[in-house]
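Backbone-to-sequence.
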């Protein structure tokens, strides 16, 4: 369920504060371990790039989590952002009434 009053925490923020900092890993070390560029990782950490299924699989493997964890974080942020941008349009859509 999406929070109503605030944007969900982006996956890059979780990655930085719950994984990188406590483990003392640098962006350079993590990027090398994941087999991705430092630019790609930096953009995720700054919230300028989404976590893709490929990145989710790499993070899950490295940190012994699940890809669903990372994709779920990204999904929540993406849904929130889309609702903020297009919510008024969605409200205009009338649900289909089916015979019961």
């Amino acid at each position: 369920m999406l929070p109503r009053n605030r944007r969900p925490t982006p996956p890059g923020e979780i990655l930085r504060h719950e994984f990188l900092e406590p483990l003392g890993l640098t962006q350079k070390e993590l990027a090398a371990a994941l087999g991705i560029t430092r630019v790609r990782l930096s953009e995720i950490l700054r919230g300028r790039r989404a976590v893709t299924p490929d990145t989710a699989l790499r993070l899950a493997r490295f940190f012994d989590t699940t890809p669903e964890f990372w994709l779920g974080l990204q999904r929540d942020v993406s849904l929130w952002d889309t609702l903020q941008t297009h919510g008024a349009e969605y409200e205009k859509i009338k649900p289909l009434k089916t015979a019961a």
